[in-house]
Amino acid sequence: MSMKQELQKLNNRLDKCKHKLDGAKSRGDNELISRFTDEIDKITKKIAQMKHKQSYDMNKERKSLLDMPFSREITKAEQADMGKTEKVSKRLSCGSPND
User: Fold this and answer.
1) DSSP states along 6-45
2) Is the pLDDT of residue 70 over 80?
3) 95's torsion region: left (phi>0), alpha (psi -120 to 50) or beta?
4) Which of 2, 30, 52, 57 is the most exposed place for a label (fewest CB within 10 A)?
5) What band does 74 get if pLDDT is binned at 50, 70 and 90?
6) Are 99 and 90 a contacting pair, CB within 8 Å?
7) Residue 18: exposure state from Cβ atoms within 10 A (0-12, 13-18, ≥19)
8) Given pLDDT bands bounded at 50, 70 and 90, which one contains residue 52?
């Protein structure tokens, strides 16, 4: 099961427990209230751990991608664009209107 699916399952369980806790509070059933508050605390802690692990893994992957060298050949169209840009910038810096 993927981490995303497991997080979704935990969130669903947390939602169910919260609804059941509301019902138990309205009835005044102290045993169920304590059981569901414990369950909610446990699920909340598990969700926080999973989210932390998920962000840790994502940051680790991001760092490894950023550390990779990037190099590729420049296409002829890109070379032509660079040449045009160079000419325009020279024209602007020199001040000559037509080149």
Assistant:
1) HHHHHHHHHHHHHHHHHHHHHHT-HHHHHHHHHHHHHHHH
2) no
3) left
4) 2
5) confident
6) yes
7) middle
8) very high
Element (H, E) at 54: helix 30-67
Residue type, 49: Q
Which residue from 74, 75, 98, 73 is spatially nearest to 87, judged by alpha carbons? 98
CA distances from 97 to 9, 38, 90, 91, 92 (A): 68, 78, 11, 7, 8
Predicted TM-score (pTM) of this structure: 0.62
* DSSP structural state of residue 94: H
Query: CA 53, 58, 62 angle in degrees (round to 5)?
Result: 150
Contact 7, 44 (CB under 8 A): no
Q: How far is CA 59 from the centre of its chain?
A: 9
